[in-house]
Fold this sequence. Notes:
Keywords (chain B): FAD, Flavoprotein, Oxidoreductase
Enzyme class (chain B): oxidoreductase
Strand order of the largest sheet of chain A: 2-1-3-8-4-5-6-7
Largest sheet of chain B: 8 strands, antiparallel
Number of strands of chain A: 8
CATH architecture of the largest domain in chain B: 3-Layer(aba) Sandwich
Shape of chain A: globular
Low-confidence stretches of chain A: 1-38
Distance between the termini of chain A: 34 Å
CATH class of the largest domain in chain B: Alpha Beta
Oligomer: heterodimer
Strand content of chain B: 15-25%
Number of domains of chain B: 4
Number of helices of chain B: 17
Number of domains of chain A: 1
Mean pLDDT of chain B: 97
Bound molecules: flavin-adenine dinucleotide
Order of helices and strands of chain A: HHEHEHEHEEHEEHE
GO molecular function (chain B): D-lactate dehydrogenase (cytochrome) activity; D-lactate dehydrogenase (NAD+) activity; FAD binding
Structural class of chain A: alpha/beta
Radius of gyration of chain B: 23 Å
Mean pLDDT of chain A: 80
Cofactor (chain B): FAD
Protein name (chain B): 4-cresol dehydrogenase (Hydroxylating)
Low-confidence stretches of chain B: none
Structural class of chain B: alpha+beta
Number of helices of chain A: 7
Shape of chain B: globular
Distance between the termini of chain B: 45 Å
Amino acid sequence: MSMDRRFVLKGMALGSLAGLTLGGALPALGAAHGSPRSSAARPALVLVNQGAEQSAFVQGARATGAAVQVRQIGGDLTDLLSLQSQLGSGRKMRLIGLLDDASAALVVDMARSAGARVEWLGQHTARGGVTRHRLLNTASAEGCARQLGRQLHGCGAGFELTEERLGSAAPARQLSAAPRNQRHADQWAAGIGYLLGSLGAGRPTAAPLIAQAGAPLDGSFVSFSIET
Amino acid sequence: MSEQNNGVLPRGVTQQEFNAAVEKFRALLGNENVLVEQQQLVPYNKIMMSVENAAHAPSAAVTATTVEQVQGVVKICNEHRIPIWTISTGRNFGYGSAAPGQRGQVILDLKKMNRIIKVDPEMCYALVEPGVTYGQLYDYIQENNLPVMLSFSAPSAIAGPVGNTMDRGVGYTPYGEHFMMQCGMEVVLANGDVYRTGMGGVKGSNTWQIFKWGYGPTLDGMFTQSNYGICTKMGFWLMPKPPVFKPFEIIFENEEDIVEIVEVLRPLRIRGIIPNSAVIANILWEAGSGNVRRSDYITEPGHTPDEIQKQIQKDTGMGAWNLYAALYGTQEQVDVNWKIIVDEFKKLGKGRIVTQEEAGDTQPFKYRAELMSGVPNLQEFGLYNWRGGGGSMWFAPVSEARGSECRKQAAMAKRVLHKYGLDYVAEFIVAPRDMHHVIDVLYDRTNEEETQRADACFAELLDEFEKEGYAVYRVNTRFQERVAQSYGKAKRDLEHAIKRAVDPNNILAPGRSGIDLDTYKS
Lengths: 228, 522
Ligand SMILES: Cc1cc2nc3c(=O)[nH]c(=O)nc-3n(C[C@H](O)[C@H](O)[C@H](O)COP(=O)(O)OP(=O)(O)OC[C@H]3O[C@@H](n4cnc5c(N)ncnc54)[C@H](O)[C@@H]3O)c2cc1C
């Protein structure tokens, strides 16, 4: 018998942003290029979909100051098989990414086969200026969800965020806020790029604001941080 | 050495007991094969079901590399009453993925037992270990230029024959009913015995992969979709590569055409004119696997209205139903059967036939042709991008291969799904007499309300179909207990009597297909 969902839900802290201490004002627009985080952020291979090499997520990852190499995943899912052999090659690799559902399902399961570690797994939907996030995290991503929530709130974007810590006895965390403005619609992706880019390099901090380029991201995405 | 720190324990097992078992696993398998850290376990927990991940969180995962190690694992589990959930390649997307059926179960991941033990190109069979993927076998066959071909599930490149057959999965060639083509299993039982089915118990036998039945009771089937043993080797038959392969598609414009399609198709399948597990995919399946996204057309929540579906048809040339089948053999054989098929569909006066020459490299024709000819690919994962959101559960009722029945099931499923604001994304996989009516219940897991809706929808699908005498052939782990109930008490009593006899400590995958000594009450 599988655990009844009500049992799990009952234990959740139905938190809201009212319970969060909001940090100071967000860094100025464009700061992504001006003040990279001079930290120990480690090099990473960044996986994004075709055409997203300048996306908010990549900008966020670059803003960590770490050396990032961007690989775009094209439409032919079978091409991902080359990643499988890379993951399984025994070489040390750090992968972060924001991908469509299909590609990400494959990448994450290939990571499992390769015996890789996954520190962060996020499911995201962006629609009509509101974003929803469901995170499955580990202790090494402690504080990231809170930081992301704070940042989303700071940007004025409406969002819902649920964080489950794998196996943690602590209740799942839920945060939400109504939208106040649309000026920084893609900041959520930059924030995640930044958080994942700097995972393991000290306390998570806010990503610099990125310049909103073009139409806001719309659709469903999966973010991850994988290490072999 | 890291301690188990993820806070998840098997049902009824204390931390102390669990730690003792983990220490023994480490001594048996080596540290690197005992995964207890959160980061190591996250990838085992990307479930797509309508329930919190916590409900299917593993307490640990262990990987074994030999049959003796599997025996050792079973011994430790008996000593400490640790339940284990076995996976082979672990790609059971939409049925529970690689996650255990119940929270806290230890995953026994056999991915490292990945030897291709034998491929006999004359007798046309293979004998493999559980971790072997179809992709690996395909490469082996290509590298050795062997005149045989594979049949596999759509996640072909990365899934494997043992796991797929243990869950009684299907493929798209004439050998598409995989359990029917299985011949000879080696199973580690809960008491540590190694049992070989069929001819496998006969010393020196060379017919283990040749003759299925052996002598006396034939037990292979009882190890599939069950929790009576751990399969450590499996034999299965391979189809000789035909000199000519001719895939084709027939496109039908209207939803109601399903009745006539099936009525024309069934005799062709029963007579063997169309030899393979053909497929009739509806417009949304076709669109999803052909890289079309719902958001290209509509962003409003709820089901995709019929007008939009018609618009997709118009824009893409896809049908309301899309039949894919293939012919195999010599040119003469293919020509004769092709003429029969063309004549039959001409008589019907409906359906636009598309050949490979006409389709070229377009999707979804290309991947369908590959699946029907044993060439692995991953194209069908495009379904996950149709709506997005990471929720996917297969609802797969069995239907008679009769037009009126298929129409009835399709209408019922569509009505229930639409009631819950979800799409009818479906295909019929056509055996001679039955259809696997496979529906992908896709939803957004970031949306708590939609997730609950999907959960209620799945439950209602099961209820409504059951009222009409229908049941699914396989289900995700969230609903396995519910589905077991559809199959009746006598069956369940017998299954639990067998379980008590072969696994009295209830260590092998408790809950699998509703078989669980701790919770079942006759
Ligand atoms: C886009 C898409 C298309 C799909 N198309 C198909 C399809 O065409 N046909 C189809 O059948 N499925 C299909 N699936 C579902 C699924 O992905 C496949 O069936 C896949 O082959 C199952 O994963 P696997 O082969 O890795 O088996 P595993 O995940 O390794 O095993 C499946 C289950 O079998 C049992 N098991 C596995 N190994 C053992 C063992 N050694 N001993 C005892 N029990 C064991 C366990 O309960 C396990 O959970 C599809 C999924 C997706 C996402």
